[in-house]
Amino acid sequence: VVTYNTLIHGLCLIGDLEEAQQLRDEMINQGILPDVLTYTILVNGSCKVGNLSMAKEFFDEMLHEGLEPDRFAYTTRIVGELRLGETSRAFSLQEEMLAKGFPSDLITYNVFVDGLCKLGNLEEACELLQNMVRDGLVPDHVTYTSIIHAHLENGHLRKARDIFYEMLSKGLSPSVVTYTVLIHAYAGKGRLEAAFTYFTEMQEKGVLPNVITYNALINGLCKVRRMDQAYKFFYEMEEKGIYPN
RNA sequence: UGGUAACCCCGUC
Question: What is the pTM of this model?
Answer without folding.
Answer: 0.93
